[in-house]
Design a protein that fits this description.
Elements lengths: L1 E6 L5 H16 L4 E6 L14 H9 L16 H6 L2 E4 L2 H11 L8 E2 L10 H17 L3
Length: 142
């Protein structure tokens, strides 16, 4: 079973959610695994390296191994949506319009959270909220 986390650039929020989910799911013995993609990776012109230093720092603070942290951001494709049983976009205000524009057939079939990017919310607040929501998914057995 797969959960797919989406954000704009697949560099910060979705990558953090993916790594955290996979570590917690494994620890709890869940068969679910997460993956992540970006809805508009071309907008990540200021993203340096494979993963946000904020996400890396928070994962290290949580003592979470960063499996796959060396891969660069990936753009979402229709195949990604088909392969996932649960799909979560991390900021409805930002990602619903991108879904309607790029993947309209999936726009209403996914769950939207409201966790803003770094231009609107500090990494501490955003990553803390992602952590809380991911832990809720794990507790509910997804």
């Amino acid at each position: 079973m797969k959960v797919l986390f989406l954000c704009t650039g697949n560099y910060y929020r979705s990558r953090f959610a993916e790594c955290l989910f996979n570590a917690l799911a494994e620890k709890e013995g869940l068969s679910w695994r997460a993956d992540s993609r970006g809805l508009a990776t071309e907008r990540g012109v200021n993203n340096v390296g494979p993963m946000s230093p904020y996400a890396v720092k928070k994962l290290k603070e949580l003592d979470i191994s960063i499996v796959g942290g060396d891969r660069f951001p990936r753009q979402a494709s229709p195949e990604d949506f088909v392969a996932a049983e649960k799909i979560i976009a991390l900021d409805e205000s930002e990602h619903r319009p991108l879904m309607i524009e790029r993947f309209p057939e999936w726009a209403e079939a996914i769950e939207y959270w409201l966790i803003h990017d770094i231009d609107k919310t500090s990494p501490e607040l955003a990553l803390g909220e992602i952590e809380r929501r991911v832990r809720e998914l794990i507790k509910a057995r997804v």
